[in-house]
Amino acid sequence: MVTQYDEKGKIFTQVISKKPVPVIVQTTQHTIRGTLHVRPSERIIDELNASIQFIAITEASVLDLQGNLVYKSNFLTLNKEHVVWIIPDEEIQSV
């Protein structure tokens, strides 16, 4: 890790703190359950509106449209153009 200091002694590092948010992501072909990582002061929508094209999902389970497990991965990147919707696990309500 590289640490830099400005002229006033303020410390800068290349580490970006993010908080894990368990989510369900729907694409046109799959449902992905996993953890999206967002900056502590931001929301999921802020992560989606960022200029980067891909979002990172950790501890991902990829399901087909019938709910069958297709893949599991500790890490995947998802092109934001394929996202239909995202629901944080904490927002899921039973019906």
At the fold tier of CATH, the topology name is SH3 type barrels
Total count of strands: 7
Q: Order of SSEs, N→C?
A: EEEEHEEE
Please state the structural category: mainly beta
Total helices: the number is 1
- Major sheet: 5 strands, antiparallel
Strand order across the biggest sheet? 6-5-4-3-7
Pfam families: DUF6812
Structure overview:
The chain is mainly beta and 95 residues long. The protein has a single domain (16-91), classed as SH3 type barrels, CATH 2.30.30.100. Helices cover 6% and strands 53% of the residues. It has one helix at residues 44-49; strands spanning 3-5, 11-13, 19-27, 31-38, 54-63, 69-79, 83-88. The strands form 2 sheets. Strands 6-5-4-3-7 form a 5-stranded antiparallel sheet. A two-stranded antiparallel sheet has the order 1-2. The longest helix is centred in the middle third of the chain and has 6 residues, at 44-49. The model has no long low-confidence stretch (mean pLDDT 87). InterPro entries: DUF6812 (IPR049210).
